[in-house]
Structures
1.
Amino acid sequence: MTTWFIIFLIVISTLKVVLASPPTFVMEWLLNKFALHARLSEETTTITLRGKRLEGEEKIQFINQFNEATFFDRYDEYDVPSENTGTPLVIDTKKGKMDVRLSVYIYSNHVDVFKQYNKKAAAYSLRSETLQSTPLAGNGNFIYS
């Protein structure tokens, strides 16, 4: 009986330590699973502007800048800015098995992102010095060249 009690205490103690401080890869997986601003990968992403696809170095450069952008604010359902009248940069990507469409509006002081997936939508704002300083940033139009 004493042996089983000691084994039970060891198992419970180990479980408590693992749950209180999980390994880094477990935390990264959990955070990425529920992140609003997920990272884009070059293989599963297509980027279009006015029907024209970004390819090669332009695509890689934009994806790197987008991934490095800092999440700034999430818009509530009734708080979505109405200034997004320019031409968006449309990003089609996959998150697991789910298709995700991002509409990106770049301005001189922030970047607005509208995310559509599984009949759901979310809107949020990013900060990125490199994206915000692109040509024509400031009026919602975006030409990356």
Note: The chain has two domains: 1-34, 37-145.
2.
Amino acid sequence: MNLEELTQTIVQALEDVKAKDVKIFNTEALTDQFERVVIASGTSNRQTRALAYAVSAAVKEAGADVLGMEGQDTGEWVLVDCGSVVCHVLQPNVRDYYNLEEIWGGKEVFMRANEECASRLMPHRVQHAPDAEA
């Protein structure tokens, strides 16, 4: 499974369980440990754990490996290590406090939209244009 497919699988799993504020960051220039960081919010301990388990199950079902999962005991911040992509699922107050977006820095990755989503994108924003590269 290539990087884009793995990232899409993770994002789709998060969206299926109604994650809030999903963001993807390219970390290739920052670390050699992984290439993407996906950050999402859940509204409660239960939802945060459910989001992480959904990511884990979807990645395994797609034939990729989940190297580890941490934080599911409290559910405030659950990390799912999928090798080249690391997924952080946090409650909003924890996400605000740690501000991972600032740590992993700046350049958010926009995935190529599926055809069915193209009509809902904001074409006036260059990064959202349907023909923009991911």
Note: Residues 45-61 form the longest helix (17 residues).
3.
Amino acid sequence: MPICAEPYLEMAQALGCSEDQVIACLQRMAGHGRLSRIGPVFEHRRAGASTLAALAVPAERLQQVAERISQYPEVNHNYAREHHYNLWFVLTGPDRPHLQRILDELQADTGLTPLDLPMLTAYRIDLGFALGDAP
């Protein structure tokens, strides 16, 4: 997305359509589960601290624990996986001690010990793909 005052309008101009059409298309995609979020992705090391965390949650508690985790504004991903560690989430905050306080709170609240996996090295991949007809 362009960084400007009217990103949807700029996208529309690049696509040769109206801003309303861009917004309607994005809403349709979200409605069909093809798009879950539109927003910035920050270089977390420049903005603070981040970690990937996981919990091994008993199946009967998965929904309850997931809802508890999602209450934190610092959580920007929270999803279930088919694994012993079946609930994964990403925490982003101002510094590492802040993240540790949240992990400690979650452990105290749930009785489950988080697996804390801070990123050591970033490996960038191009996730870009054509949205139109292939040439």
Note: The radius of gyration is 19 Å.
4.
Amino acid sequence: MHTQFPPEVRQHLEHKQTVVFSPEDRRLIGTAGYEAPSEDIVTDAVLAIYLGKNVLLKGPTGAGKTKLAEHISALFGLPMHAVNCSTDLDAEALLGFKTLQHNALGQSEIVFIPGPILLAMTKGHLLYIDEINMAKPETLPLINGVLDHRRSITNPFTGEVIRAHPDFRVIAAINEGYVGTVPMNEALKNRFVTVEVPYLQGEGLHMLLQKNSILHDEKLLRTFVQLSADLLALIEMGQLPDEAGSIRALLDACDLAAYIPPRRAVQRAIADKLEDERERAAVMNIAETLL
């Protein structure tokens, strides 16, 4: 089990699997099964988490960053609380909010409902911040103290100082260069160890499609692996956007191809998502050549 890790890390992971959580918290533990393009990706991310570092997963959309975070959650046996960043993200979405409730005596009282960050901090769980560079620049400095050596925050809604449980860990994910994203400032970036997550290719991709798609035609699965390679070649030349290489989209195409003609499956799952007509035509040209 976990043979690629040093003995002390293996022992730690095995011990964490024995920790008992409430049924509610256990449902938050991710599912293992991330297929890595390189073993170093999982090894380095796990080692960083073991050492108490914040990990930034950097890669194109659909490369499996969220799946890797869930995989790490499963390896450590840590429930995972997710924050999905957007331009609308505010302090309440991150930290929690006050609301009116009735107590056991039927009296109304104002109570604070903790958000994902405070829950993860106080329970010693894993915090996953998805698309961290989609948040407004003025929002994330709220949690700078959570991400550095202080591992604490003053709750702006209650004035209470919250200090993180020793098991608290943080993973964030970033898609660079997409519409609506902003460059991470240096203060925030310096709080993370960065792990590149590229698209899976070759035999690893074939195994993933075999395992996760309802399509069982081996010849067709191999053709979809080649389709992915050809799409990535055009992406590298700047002729297609990153989303054309999404593994999620490729899986969708495989599933559809179990029931409809493969070229139409590629059109529905990959080509029609693209805005530019020339990009859609480029995808379909590859599909027509292979399929």
Note: The chain has a mean pLDDT of 91.
